[in-house]
């Protein structure tokens, strides 16, 4: 758990520590983690960069999840993909 500047705590989420070298599998795991975790889902709608950092994503996995989340939220007529 990280402690914020104002004393609030922030949960840290991590993907499976046994991440594969297969970017597609890592992308799917990250998208599922966001979908299955209400706090991540809510934070992704307002601060996707924070969620990507919390999941420890980098490289192509980070870019693909960012694009996927962006497309999921804007392509659903403003209602949000996960709703």
Which helices and strands occur, and which strands form pairs?
Layout: E1 2-3, E2 9-10, H1 23-36, H2 38-46, H3 48-54, H4 59-74
Antiparallel strand pairs: 1-2
Helix pairs in contact: 1-2, 1-4, 2-3
Beta-strand share of residues:
under 5%
Q: Helicity, in percent?
A: 55-70%
Strand arrangement in the largest pleated sheet: 1-2
Question: Structural class per helix/strand content?
Answer: mainly alpha
DSSP strand tally: 2
**Rg (C-alpha, Å):** 13 Å
- N-to-C SSE string, H for helix and E for strand: EEHHHH
Task: List the defining traits of the structure above.
globular, 83 residues, two-stranded antiparallel sheet, 55% helix, 4 helices, mainly alpha
Detailed description of the structure:
The protein has about 80 residues and is mainly α. It has a domain at about 25-70. It is built from four helices and two strands. A two-stranded antiparallel ribbon has the order 1-2. The longest helix is centred in the last third of the chain and has 16 residues, at about 60-75. The radius of gyration is 13 Å and the shape is globular. The termini are far apart.
């Amino acid at each position: 758990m990280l402690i914020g500047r104002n004393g609030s705590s922030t949960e840290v989420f991590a993907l499976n520590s046994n991440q594969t070298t297969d970017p597609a599998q890592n992308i799917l795991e990250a998208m599922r983690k966001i979908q299955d975790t209400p706090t991540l889902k809510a934070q992704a709608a307002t601060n996707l960069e924070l969620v990507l950092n919390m999941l420890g994503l980098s490289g192509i996995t980070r870019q693909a999840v960012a694009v996927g989340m962006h497309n999921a939220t804007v392509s659903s007529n403003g209602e949000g993909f996960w709703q």
